[in-house]
Write a structure and sequence with these properties.
Elements: E1 2-9, E2 18-21, E3 25-30, H1 36-51, E4 62-63, E5 66-67, E6 84-93, E7 96-109, E8 114-126, E9 129-135, E10 144-148, E11 154-158, E12 161-162, E13 165-166, H2 176-190, E14 192-195, E15 206-207, H3 223-229, H4 231-245, E16 248-254, E17 257-264, E18 269-272, H5 278-291, H6 293-296, E19 300-304, H7 315-324, E20 333-336, H8 340-351, E21 360-367, E22 373-380, E23 386-387, H9 396-412
Parallel strand pairs: 3-20, 3-21, 14-19, 19-20
Antiparallel strand pairs: 1-2, 1-6, 4-5, 6-7, 7-8, 8-9, 9-10, 10-11, 12-13, 15-17, 16-17, 17-18, 21-22, 22-23
Helix pairs in contact: 1-2, 3-5, 4-5, 7-8
Length: 413
């Protein structure tokens, strides 16, 4: 199962419906504080809800190592205390399309004005079913829903929730197909991997906690553990650093204690990774995530600013790393970036025939004077041209060159 699109509505700056189509490579670009991170983080927000249990709210305030907000109100457009959020996700499993639409409502209860979440509406559709749950009221103590779409049932009934998953076990065999889809959605949610920026690495030396890290979601602190678990991955990472930075990255083990180190053969010196430059440390989790994507199987990888702390001359190496490591529709990559080189290299790969245009989605994220965010799809043609690119974006170098030449001409005159 893989995610094909996610639409948000009344979510943070996205008051109006905003649909993000997910392709093998999806790139979010835009100015600071325009809403790029918010849109990208809606995916782990959904995943966290699908992984939830009976003791958690429908939408988790923290998931995949991210803190989404202090209360649901922080996630609702204009922080409307009685507002709601709508998430609509489209998945594909083989030839079957699966559509999940949830509306989570903020409800104020008690004299202390405590804010609680309730699932107001929940709709699951596929080729062979259409199941609707609509809450009859907003009293958190009365979880009664109108249920339709299950064979032999059409009734009003209390429903308990495990995050964003309804407990329909009392309906027996009638829910077997629903439970099968929910199990697949949970498997997908477990595979969501998000790399924040700035990233972190454990300080050497550190204790290796064991095999459980081999299947854990990847973040900066877990990078070294994944390297320790795979000789093949370590070899790939060493080769990439050697080729592009002239240094060797390795993990030296002494019993259950590990040292993450960088060796510069030009000076025959070895230092701890946390004593090296920030650029080399910041890109290590990116390299590990990219080079292990294929073997980690279906899911989705999201990376904030893979070029962070790197000299502009190294942006091309990171762009090639990501483009050459794409795992396809079963494990797409979504990148939030300010790097012009990443965009140019993707366009170049399209022209070279190495990246089909339909496998690339670029979104320009913008914010209006009223503070409302939007996402505009930028299409890339087979000849690498872009359609719908905003005026004045990534033209700073050209403008500076014109200004320098103009001033030089005035001095000569």
């Amino acid at each position: 199962m893989h995610l094909q699109s996610l639409q948000v509505e009344r979510y943070k700056g996205y008051l109006e419906p905003c649909k993000l189509c997910v392709r093998p490579l999806t790139i979010l670009v835009g100015r600071n504080s325009s809403g790029k991170s918010a849109l990208a983080r809606a995916i782990p927000l959904l995943a966290g809800g699908l992984l939830g249990n009976r003791h958690e709210t429908p939408l988790p305030l923290a998931s995949s190592g991210l803190v989404h907000g202090r209360t649901l109100q922080d996630l609702i457009s204009h922080r409307a205390i009685h507002g709601n959020i709508t998430l609509t996700a489209e998945f594909r499993s083989g030839s079957t399309r699966i559509n999940l639409k949830v509306v989570v409502q903020s409800v104020v209860t008690g004299a202390g004005a405590a804010v609680r979440q309730v699932v107001k509406s929940w709709i699951l559709r596929s080729d062979d079913l259409s199941l609707n749950l609509e809450r009859t009221g907003l009293d958190p103590g009365d979880s009664t829903y109108e249920l339709s779409g299950l064979p032999g049932t059409d009734e009003t009934t209390p429903v308990s929730w495990r995050g964003l998953r309804p407990d329909l076990s009392k309906f027996g065999e009638a829910t077997e197909r629903v439970e099968s889809i929910l199990d697949d959605l949970v498997s997908w949610a477990r595979s969501v991997s998000y790399l924040k920026s700035p990233r972190s690495l454990p300080s050497s030396p550190f204790s290796f906690p064991g095999e459980q890290w081999a299947t854990a979601n990847l973040d900066g602190m877990q990078t070294a553990y994944l390297l320790a678990d795979s000789d093949t991955l370590r070899a790939k990472v060493r080769e990439w650093y050697r080729e592009h930075f002239g240094v060797t990255v390795d993990l030296r083990m002494q019993g259950d204690v590990a040292f993450l180190e960088i060796r510069d053969p030009r000076m025959s010196t070895t230092i701890s990774m946390d004593q090296a430059g920030q650029g080399l440390a910041q890109v290590l989790p990116v390299a590990v995530q990219a080079l292990s994507a294929e073997e980690r199987g279906p899911g989705i990888d999201l990376i904030e600013h893979p070029e962070a702390e790197l000299h502009p001359g190294a942006h091309g190496a990171v762009a090639d790393l990501l483009l050459e490591s794409l795992a396809g529709r079963n494990r797409p990559l979504l990148v939030e970036t300010h790097s012009e080189m990443l965009l140019l290299r993707a366009r170049r790969r399209v022209v070279e025939g190495k990246l089909p245009p339909e496998d690339l989605a670029i979104y320009w994220i913008d914010i209006s004077e009223e503070g409302l965010a939007s996402a505009r799809r930028i299409h890339v043609t087979e000849d690498g041209e872009v359609e719908g690119w905003p005026d004045g974006v990534f033209y700073e170098d050209y403008d500076e060159i014109l200004a320098i030449r103009r001033m030089a001409h005035e001095r000569i005159a």
